From TrEMBL, chains A, B:
Protein name according to UniProt: Substrate-binding domain-containing protein
Keywords assigned: DNA-binding, Transcription, Transcription regulation
One Pfam short name: LacI
Entry's transmembrane regions: none
Domain of life: Bacteria
Organism in which the protein naturally occurs: Halovulum marinum
Record-linked SUPFAM superfamilies: lambda repressor-like DNA-binding domains (SSF47413), Periplasmic binding protein-like I (SSF53822)
GO molecular function, one term: DNA-binding transcription factor activity
Domain HTH lacI-type positions: 2-56
DNA sequence: TTGTAGGCGTTATCAA
DNA sequence: TTGATAACGCCTACAA
């Protein structure tokens, strides 16, 4: 491999000069700098990351820890984190929490041992992130005190409910999957908050990880719309509705969260509340970057608004006429 | 940070002795070795990856290149590659091909620059992987000459068709999404091969990336079963069938590929042909490991059998009685 | 069995 | 403007 030293030898100059010419730091005459750069290009010189890391104490690598890499959100997040990291000159090393708190601690440990400069972590449900030697950007939910940046799940919940109320829905079922998830809690809470504020005529909340909620009972209770805490649960409900011959969105509107890839392939396609993942990735990286470069001001924890994607699983309620949203505020 | 040097100083021994004691290579008296290890533990010593990489020329890091990190297969592959890599002491750096050949070359380049020891790559559809300085494990399809290890997509295709023939189906629609994909080509070809061999009474192949195939026309043509090249397409068809009130699996059986996460949440749940991802990851890593450790024999390219997962979207054809599979071989 | 010393490729300090 | 030199932390002949 060609090194700074071999270039120095080839050109009969010192390594320091080569280093300066290539990095543009020290003063080197334009003419010599040009010759050095040219030669470096010719021999295909690339600095050794190991040597640089050893000298500078920085690896230029960030870690990404996910609760479970088969988490459906992982691909999009990985995609955006990688892009954001790359544009700042960082590489991304992945690690899997293996779905438990111990695994999460181990994953962080492994990354730190590998010399990452910082870590982006999506913590496992219901865990507190353990402190480390390197800066940590936590992507979770506003209600997690350790949170660095996240989607505004609560606002997302309001958005989902609000959008359905705008269409005229008044009786809701709010369906979550796992009550230990702060993310899902916030989403359901946001929806409930919107209903309370705008005078929905009552709603039920149910948490169910296995079976789908009893749709027929819900319909009998006058429910015309369901807000689910994730697209996967929405999928379950949509399928259930179709086998029960409940028309969607005619008889029942359903909305999910996360904008998982299958949503647009469903028939009816799934309306959903999508996290602004590029923005989240951007902020997580800005945060780490600020901490790593010793910036005077570190970005404070922040939440990123979610985005409504209306597709075909939501529509006007059949039973009653569309009411003017303005009038319906009790 | 504690280093080999600081430990040597603390204990009044030489750095070489510490290094030997910790690595167990050179001869060090048991007693001294014990003291050194104990002290190392106490001060929380961990070797510097940068220094070790600089000295040994190996980073202990592998790259993982995907055509697009939002590819639905990515999570499971990343999960298993990371696990397999970790158990061999490697970390995994991700890179995104940004969905084109140029991006793919750039991704490889970036990883090599970062000093990875080897790369696992899932090539972009229809591209040939460019040669590099580091060993490359290619995960694609047997029909790609550069392939290192892959699922046996062709056998998977036979499996899908065979399983449906066992149930008594005879007329098939084989539906693919992208004919440029070697993977999908192999799957469809495998299914066709099985039908030809076992005397299906004819089948149509269609390639469609946007609209779903015309189900009514297919049914009119006597089709009772559809083999799709991916679960996403199967999902589209299932949804389509439900809106057209075509009973699945009563009137029509549908099977997909890849065992994507949503499949089990559908109603009816989706039968699928699943790649044995843990085994594929294992072999990809064995291959790289062999090449990196200069092993005498490098594992030859190999294909890993796919696994049938029968759920509820496949069943006996309605029209005709179940025929004995043995008798049905023409 | 233990210690000395050199070097991996960079960066940075200080002289020239 | 340029060069000599010393680290960074580790490994490994080779010498004691």
């Amino acid at each position: 491999m060609s090194s700074i030293k071999s270039i120095a030898r080839d050109l009969g100059v010192s390594t320091a000069t080569v280093s300066n010419a290539l990095s543009g730091k020290g003063r080197v005459s334009d003419e010599l700098a040009r010759r050095i750069r040219e030669h470096a290009g010719k021999v295909g010189y690339h600095p050794s990351p190991a040597a640089r890391a050893l000298k500078t104490g920085r690896s230029g690598i960030l870690g990404l820890v996910m609760p479970n890499l088969t988490n459906p959100l992982f691909p999009r997040l990985a995609h955006n984190i990688e892009a954001a990291a790359d544009s700042r000159g960082f590489g991304v090393l992945i690690a899997d929490s293996r779905s438990d708190a111990a695994g999460q601690a181990a994953a962080i440990e492994r990354l730190v041992r590998r010399g990452v400069d910082g870590i982006v972590i999506v913590p496992h449900r219901g865990t507190r992130v353990t402190e480390t030697d390197v800066p940590l950007a936590v992507i979770n939910a506003a209600s997690d005190p350790a949170n660095t940046v996240s989607a505004d799940h609560r606002q997302g919940g309001r958005l989902a409910a609000g959008l359905l109320m705008d269409m005229g829905h008044r009786r809701f079922l709010l369906a979550g999957e796992d009550p230990r998830s702060e993310v899902q809690q916030d989403r359901i809470a946001g929806a409930a908050e919107c209903l309370a504020r705008r005078g929905g005529t009552g709603h039920r909340v149910c948490w169910t990880s296995e079976a789908a909620p009893d749709l027929l009972a819900a319909l009998a209770g006058g429910v015309t719309a369901i807000v689910t805490s994730t697209d996967l649960l929405a999928l379950k409900l949509l399928s259930e509705a179709q086998t029960l011959d409940i028309a969607v969105p005619g008889r029942l509107s359903v909305i999910g969260f996360d904008n998982l890839p299958f949503g647009e392939h469903l028939r009816p396609s799934l309306s959903t509340i999508a996290p602004d993942v590029p923005e989240i990735a951007h902020r997580a990286l800005s945060y780490l970057d600020a901490r790593l470069s010793g910036a005077a001001e570190i970005p404070p924890p922040s939440v990123v608004p979610m985005i409504a994607i209306q597709r075909d699983s939501t529509g006007l309620p059949q039973e009653r006429p569309v009411t003017d949203p303005a009038r319906s505020v009790s």
